Amino acid sequence: MVLQLPDAATDAADKLTREMNDAPTLTKREAKRRYREFTRKAHDRILNDGVSYHDAVETPRMYLTEDRETFDRKLRMTDNDLVWQCETVSAAFRRYQRTGETPAPYFALRVAIVLRKAREHARERKFLAAWCRHFRRHVGGKYTTLVERYAKLRT
User: Fold this and answer.
1) pLDDT, position 62
2) Rounded Cα distance, 28 and 118, in Å
3) Using an 8 Å Cβ cutoff, are 134 and 103 in contact?
4) I need a labelling partner for 14 at 20 to 30 A (CA). Which of 32, 52, 89, 127 fits?
5) What's the pLDDT tens digit per position in 27-42?
6) What is the pLDDT of residues 100-109, one digit of tens each?
7) Is the overall model pTM greater than 0.85, yes or no?
8) Contact, 110 vs 79, CB < 8 A?
């Protein structure tokens, strides 16, 4: 069965892809510099201003749910919600551009999966090309999975 996507979902995927394509690719050195500066400022805020760790590092609120079960339930509810997934990847990507903190690949993988389920192969390929432009050198299972998905779509 093919997943039917509303226009808002395909628009969100296209917007996310454009956002990533329009953004400069950070070198490993620049990402590290931004991350060091971000964490230094966070530590200063904790020590000098008395703010909590989560406020100092600007932890996304979705990670501060009451318990793991609530968090897992929300993830399951949004698994095929392409708009939500794209907004989550976009927020993490903007954070990466600002702070050098590498985004978790889980949500990017969900974007690719939902696009594949909807047989939106061209959109999936464009999204993965944009993602891989920024994160193809990152190490880890899901990062590798995303790069491999892109390589298969290119052939």
Assistant:
1) 62
2) 34
3) no
4) 32
5) 999 999 999 999 999 9
6) 999 999 999 9
7) yes
8) yes
Burial 46-85 (b: 16+ CB within 10 A, else e): eeeeeeeeeebbeeeeeeeeeeeeeeeeeeeebebebbbb
Query: Which are the contacts of 22, defined by CB distance < 8 A and separation ≥ 6?
Result: none
What is the CB neighbour count within 10 angstroms for residue 27?
9
> 130 CB contacts (<8 Å, ≥6 apart)?
16, 17, 20, 21
* 86 touches 11 (CB < 8 A): no
Residue 3 CA, distance from chain mean position: 22
2 Cβ contact partners less than 8 Å away, ≥ 6 residues apart? 117, 118, 119
Express each pLDDT in 100-150 by its tens digit.
999 999 999 999 999 999 999 999 999 999 999 999 888 788 989 999 999
Residue 155: how many CB atoms within 10 A of its CB?
4
Residue 118 identity: A
Say which residues have a Cβ less than 8 Å from residue 73's Cβ, sequence separation at least 6: none
Which positions ≥6 away from 76 have C-beta within 8 Å? Answer: none
**End-to-end alpha-carbon separation of the chain, Å?**
24
